[in-house]
Amino acid sequence: MGCPPNLVADGALYAWVVTSRSSSGDPTAEVTDLLQSLIRNECVNDGSVASGVETRSVDLLAGYLAGAGDHEIYEPQPGRQSLVAKIEGSDPDAPSLMLMGHTDVVPVNPDGWSRDPFAAEVVDGFVWGRGAVDMLTLTASQAVAFRHLADSGFRPRGTLIYFAVADEEALGTWGADWLLDHERDAVYADYVLTESGGFQIPSPAGPRLPVLVAEKGTFWTKIRVHGTPGHGSQPFRTDNALVTAAEVVRRIAEYRPQTQIHESWRHFVEGMQFEPEITAALLSTDDFAGALAELPLGIARHWHACTHTTFAPTVARGGTKTNVIPDQVDLEVDIRTLPGQRGADATAMLRDALGDLADAVDITSNDDPATSSPADTPLWDSLARTTAQLCEGSALVPSLMVGGTDNRFFRRAGAVGYGFGLFSKRLPYEDYSTMFHGNDERVDVDSLDMSTRLWDAVARDLLD
Ligand SMILES: [Zn+2]
What DSSP designation does 51 have? Predict the structure, then answer.
């Protein structure tokens, strides 16, 4: 383990270790077992309403949490269940804390994996499987911490909520978004902790633990490219939509948006306390590209996304038959916007990328802007106190989530939402970021243990 837990420093912090009533009595074995079961449930969300079937994992978690707090289950579509468990606080005016973990995972192509993505094998202290990193480790460790807090007789001033939520991987339509719209009183909390953050980034001053206080917006865009149909045997001077679409894709891929040194990037870099010349390069629009070239690919990719509006052509549909010149091709582009950017900014950049083709195609976009929470909150202070004990020599740094999480719904509803967890040094930062939705997703058992301790400690620190 990267940071040996200081087990005896605060007896209250680990009261659950000795007061556990649950089956194994060993929280590490329990959280490993729960993670394995969540992986094996294969709650794969392909974006269709019938996929996910998170009911399987809600059944599992409801069984695991039986007798711990009050439970409600919500099912806005058949099979798309979410579970809310609460330990009611004694003071209705005290702030509440929600531990939120999604139960769905993204699809997988087993060909790229070294092991069965749904077998949840434990090899050399790592649990392998789709969802190990995104985000069943946290979903499982939050449940275990909640269970043991309830078992230990934890009666906080503020209410503690555990929320195992469906459909995070398809925009939260049948999960967090729906529940906040229809069952706000059941799921709203003043403070929300969900994925991801908390992986250790080495720095000269000791490990730095990113707290994801903000996340980029999505500006998912469809581009329809038109042409004129004709016979494939006579392509000379035809208006082939597929050929035009290829040029559209090429221009987007070659587009180089400007580096944006925005406030949350600046806070992250300053918090990392790199050598002064590295700090200067990472905060300079001129020197940033050169600094990226020196970094491992996983880190370079992440830091590029932190400082740029990104454009990724991801889907193309077109053509009907080998001997027909296509008259229509539909493209999809995953565009991610930075804090403070609006849809109009992203549209202007896309038009700039397309040049004279911008007026020849139809562009439709869905603007879901970036969100953020302040870093000077009681939740931040609580995370700082608890991680100082759990991970010696570490310090928190505010950071930007480059993907999307359910935090955005809660931030817009008025909550302070952070992405956090706690991971050991066995899970290097660059591996962590490439495993998201990638091949060979896996997490070490020490990280499961550290995350479980974190939720327990923060609930006690913040709510009591
Ligand atoms: Zn996730």
Answer: S
| Span from the CA of 232 to the centroid of ligand 1 (angstroms) | 44
The pairing of strands 97-102 and 191-194 is parallel
Cis peptide before 401 (omega within 30 of 0): no
Residues 6+ apart with CB under 8 A from 427: 199, 443, 444, 447
Residues 22, 24: Cα–Cα separation, whole Å: 6
Centroid of chain to Cα 218:
13
Q: Give CA separation, 69 vs 10, 133, 146, 177, in Å.
A: 25, 27, 9, 24
Radius of gyration over alpha carbons of the chain, in Å? Answer: 23
> How do strand 97-102 and strand 160-165 relate by DSSP bridges?
parallel
Summarize pLDDT for 279-313 with one digit per residue, the tens.
Answer: 999 999 999 999 999 998 888 998 999 999 999 99
Is the per-residue pLDDT at 173 higher than 90? yes
* CB 71 within 8 Å of CB 65: yes
Q: Which two tokens stand for residue 220?
A: 């998912």
Which residue, chain included where needed, has tokens 């990638």?
Answer: 438
Distances (CA, A) of 325 to 3, 235, 239, 245, 321: 62, 8, 8, 13, 8
Element (H, E) at 298: helix 297-307
- For tokens 């469809």, the residue is 222
Q: How far is the CA of 165 from the centre of ligand 1 (A)?
A: 11
Half-sphere exposure of 369 (CA within 13 A, CB side): 12
Give the C-alpha separation, 41 to 74, whole Å.
19
Instruction: Output the CA 25–ligand 1 centroid distance in Å.
Output: 29
**Ligand 1 centroid to residue 236 C-alpha, Å:** 48
**158: helix, coil or strand?**
coil
Q: Which helix (H) or strand (E) holds 301?
A: helix 297-307
pLDDT tens digits, one per residue of 177-206: 999 999 999 999 999 999 989 999 988 889
Read off the tokens for 82. Answer: 């979410």
Q: Residue 402 and residue 412: Cα distance in Å, rounded?
A: 18
Ligand 1 center to 143 CA (angstroms): 16
